[in-house]
Amino acid sequence: MLIGQASINLTANVLSALLGLLSVFIFTRLFAPHDYGVFLLGVGFASVISVFLVGWFRNLILSGHARNDGTDVRGLVASGYLICCLTAPIAYLLGRLVGLDTAAALAAVVLAIAIGLFELTQDLLRARLKALSVMKATLVRAAALLGLGVVVALVSPTGVLLLLAAASAYLLAVLVQSRRAWRGTIVNFDRADLRSLARTGLPLTLSLTLLAISSVTDRFMIANLIGAADAGKYVAALDLVRQTLMMPAMSMAAAFFPMAVQIHARQGDAAVAVRTHLADCLELLAGVTLPACLGFALIAPHVANIVLGADFRAVASEIMPVIAIAVLFQVLTQQYLHASFLLSGRNSFYLINTASIIAANVILSYVLVSLYGTIGAAWARLGADITGFVCALILSRFAFRIPIPLGRLALIAIAALAMALTVGALDRALDLSDLHASIVLIGAGLAVYAALCWLFDIARLRGRLKRGLVMFHTRSANSNVG
């Protein structure tokens, strides 16, 4: 079931990422760096506000809605979200405070509310493992953003209008899945329930909001110290890396987090099944993320030349390899180690972990951006993500003790390093265009890593393939009989 849910999530995210890459390909050619920078700064600000708006409900949905035992938390979620949206004027003032102009701040707040509603709707569906519905909305959002963005670029290529186009795309995606996620919901402003929700959700909301702040600190640091155009170049490269590499990790986490909650709810802390499930999840997560990050770091200059516009490529070629390694630590922290805090109910640990990340990011960003410019922001992000990983690893020892199967992880590291050495050596020997070089290098890397996965039986690959073949033959035989 884990593989099936993760596969559907991955398919949705792959298609969404392809549309996202196409958007970046088009937007970095149709928009000037300054206008694209305004858009990306607005998106970064909106992401922080949206996290604050929905953070109160994340654990409620995961721990209550995911159990699928008849509990309906949607009315409480809807009423709570409406109350949270009353903070929009404060959000606008904060937008002006961090440097957004009047129009950009207003558009960013509208986008934040739209993102929050979209994420809540997606969370409700993910908690019930309705991966196909999640996939449908994800694709609608990505396609709508691309289409509306092109219209904006042709009519009036400004960052503010692109922000409003993004908000419209999110709202359209919510409409597509609103019946399945929200049908039958009764909004009830129960004061006792709302107070309890606020009390229990405060630590996680603060930590997630601070984490979101830490993820955009570097772009606003660049915008204020250097300029919006340089921030646009930096964030275009940053988002290209994160959109590509976070995709498989988030797909798997969207499947195994609810499953872990369900197993834990049925069998408790002492259950071997929970730890076995988490160990399998970590092996699968690392087995996909580590080679992806290393491979992307090696071919980053080729990718930058293919995807980004001419004004964005030089900066991207420098920072993308560093960001790719940073993403590895971010994935392991957020998509695995944070499961320890969720299963133990230690919401305060989210806050502690996030505080360590934001402190490291603010200090390192200010120092390194001042000294080295845009590339300094990339190194600051890497340092902050390593700090967060170490802090989360230590905290997890005092929460739910999630397994760290070192032997299985060592085999993944060996296979990934062998793949990286092969790709690096081949890249130095090739004399091809960026597109053809990328195709050859990706193909060679996949072949080497797949062979080593089979040899080392990483993530029990041989057994899973055999079961898949048996299932396929069985279904084929039954179909022929029918």
UniProtKB/TrEMBL annotation:
Signal peptide location: none
Subcellular localization(s) per the UniProt record: Cell membrane
Coiled coil (UniProt feature): none
Protein's name according to its UniProt entry: Membrane protein involved in the export of O-antigen and teichoic acid
Stored Pfam families: Polysacc_synt_3
Membrane topology, record value: Multi-pass membrane protein
InterPro entries linked: Poly_Biosynth_Transport
Superkingdom: Bacteria
Ranges that cross the membrane: 12-32, 38-61, 73-94, 100-120, 132-154, 245-263, 284-307, 319-337, 349-372, 378-399, 406-426, 438-459
Major localization class: membrane
Keywords assigned by UniProt, alphabetized: Cell membrane, Membrane, Transmembrane, Transmembrane helix
UniProt keyword Electron transport, yes or no: no
Gene Ontology cellular component annotations, sorted alphabetically: plasma membrane
